[in-house]
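call fold(seq) -> tokens
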Amino acid sequence: YKIVPVLTGSALKNKGVQPMLDAVVDFLPSPLDVPAVKGHNPRNVEEELSRPVDDEAPFAALAFKIAADPFVGKLGFFRVYSGVLKADSHVWNVNHGSDERVGQLFVVRGKTHEPATQLVAGDIGAIPKLAHAATGDVLTERAEAAPIAPLPLPVPTFRSALHPKSKEDVDKLFNALHRLRKQDPTIGMERDPDTAEMILLTVGDAQATIVAERLQKNYGIAVDLDIPRVPYRETIGGQEYKLPFVDRITYRTIKDEATYITALRPKMAFVVDVRRGNFDLHLIYKALFELSAD
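ret:
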């Protein structure tokens, strides 16, 4: 049998927070009680790496959250799995293949950021103003491979159309979504090629609402969430015939094989000049009307 402790409370009203923290200390294992973390060498996926929870082992940490702090800017929360991280040092971002400068180190206690000179294996801390780090990145020493497996993240499949309320915010929307995606990799974005809408990809409706609220609160961009438009298309069936190309300017028939166009009936003659991008819509509509009348 398994016993699962259940605690109730509200972080918003600060109810039941202390009993939950006491339960973490009493019931959850310490870093020394769990096995060594395992991962794969990115240069050789068949090679398995591990890191024991030891201060003497090479440094390895996982950035499990990137947040935007109103006072220090970009703030990366991470856990040290092995080794020691010291303030005013440099680490290697395995995911981006770049160097990250570590200026200050903080231990976060609620809203308070307590400065720290170093963090050892098992500690959770924060690094401000990381240049390239995103949620899920692995930080190591430059000569070391990634010993930590990547975070398993759900694939965003819920689609919402984002419509800025102000035309001035259209250009700022893409940059704001790119910053939010660094904080939360389960957020996706794309531009619909048919409707030209900005599509927001999330794992659910609640997350889409939170993204809209964060755009308003952190970046001052007010948006409306809507159902994406569906580009309806109609397919005209029938037998195909090759017709000679008719120049729109001279109305002369060009019999070059490369200038032939495809039509649905022999009597349909499109007057089109593809070279100049000109289309005689009147004749096209007339031909389609005759086709639908049959």
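The two ends are 74 Å apart (CA to CA).
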